[in-house]
Design goal:
Length: about 210
């Protein structure tokens, strides 16, 4: 038995004889069954014998694959079990990743007490086929903004409804360009984290710690 890339799957070298039939090379991987004589009876007619170098239980369904310069037999039930385990691990990592991102969002929004209706959005800038294009109309460095859903008039900060917090009254680019990935902010835990530096600077006035000072 030789080491396999997946340690949970046995990989038994197979001896195809001194002359390896081209049909075996062209058809690999192929499925077969281990016989009482410790050979592999493959599913298509062949006039050659595949002998196992190490014993496997007779009746075991195997997959014959290329292994280095030769061939190896791997039990199909072990292959399927390993694939299921990998799929479960990917799903576990996905769930953990989603939970981690949710904790990050919660921690972010707990810093703020924003007195206006708002949502989050990305500026759907046309990236065409230039360097950095994602093919979605957004460049790779597109950031998430805070989009106000009502007029804002707090001292020097004045924004009209449906404006990005980072855009002044004289800059109408956000009206000319489409908005993407808008998320209702009724539940901050489900809202994207703001990473527009200018929006973050404007949002400092609503930080909970600053208001307590």
């Amino acid at each position: 038995m030789v080491a396999d890339s997946d340690s949970t799957v046995e990989s038994v070298p197979v001896d195809a004889g001194r002359f390896v039939p081209p049909a075996l090379v062209q058809s690999t991987p192929v499925q077969g069954t281990v016989t009482d004589e410790q050979t592999v009876d493959i599913e298509w007619d062949a006039n050659f014998t595949l002998s196992l170098s190490d014993p496997l239980e007779p009746g075991t369904e195997v997959k014959v694959v290329r292994s280095g310069e030769g061939f190896a037999a791997k039990p199909i039930d072990q292959i399927e079990a390993a694939q299921e385990a990998k799929a479960w691990e990917r799903e576990r990592q996905k769930i953990h990743g989603q939970a981690r991102k949710r904790r990050q969002r919660v921690a972010f929004w707990e810093q703020y007490d924003i007195p206006i209706a708002f949502t989050t959005a990305k500026n759907n800038r046309i990236s065409e086929l230039r360097r950095g294009s994602t093919g979605t109309g957004q460049t790779e460095n597109t950031v998430t903004h805070l989009l106000v859903l009502e007029d804002v008039d707090e001292g020097r900060l004045k924004r009209a409804e449906s404006r990005f917090l980072c855009k002044g009254e004289g800059n109408r680019s956000d009206q000319r360009m489409g908005l993407a990935d808008q998320t209702a902010a009724t539940d901050p835990k489900e809202t994207s984290v703001i990473d527009c530096q200018t929006c973050l600077e404007r949002m400092k006035r609503w930080r909970v710690d600053d208001r307590r000072k």
